Amino acid sequence: MFALLDRDLDPHKCRLRAPEQIALHQRRAERGTGVSFGHRLDAFVLQRLALFGRGLAADAALWLLASLGLRVLGLPGAVRALRSGPPVVAAVAAMALTAWPLGLLFRVSAPEMLPGQRVVNDAAYVVEQGGPLLWIFTVPVLLSLAAAYRPVPVAALCAALALPATAQFVIRKVTEPPDPLPAPMVRAMADLERASRPGDVVMQRPGARYPPAPVVLIGRRVPYERFTPYLTQFAAREDLERRHETVFRFFRTTDATEARAIAQSLGARFVCLYGQDRLRFDASTWPVIHSEPAARCSSLAAP
What is the pTM of this model? Predict the structure, then answer.
């Protein structure tokens, strides 16, 4: 839909007045809320709509029709519910009807990124949440059609309309190469779970290959990780860089006393190493919890 939006704009062809004022209001809002929003609406979409006009609007309408699919039938019912339905039903209708416009026109993301991070637009979740809600108003229409006509043809038509998206999803999942968490990491987490308590902090290298195993498998914490691409939504960039430097020093130091002090400052009680990971200091006196070539875990408790 936004294939044309990557072209360079000729500012003289845009009929928007004072785009600088729009950008100024946007920057003020972002500073006040910590959320980057409105790029797609004011400085991005509106200028391109002014330039490309009817062609872009037609493409947008086609994309919306394909995206909504059978749920188009539920739009009139949702509008009626919004106007005159009970408060709860009207609220559901409002969320269903505004999902697509909000998802397309707004961007909700962290105001700044770390090096290597990708921008994640959380406005997409609004569309995902609005889809099931719109089905609430679509299903009664389908049942009415099935009652007025023969149920089998109506069901066949619904299946045919849903088939392309379903087939695309299934084919993509089937052809996607498996990427399981290595079995040694899973076994190490089983031993670590028995030796630790929920919420304990575990030192591990903040690699981005897999999600942090202590977090996703046994409910423990890690002081820093790079698998999550939107960390700046939860902490300032300076704080994240400082935490990364602290964890980096733990794995680079050759002094066991310094390493223990770093771990204590982070509240860490355990350390796990995977694959070729290694410690540069002597940790031979630390109690071993799990040991195999591809995964090792030790306790930071004093021997």
Answer: 0.62
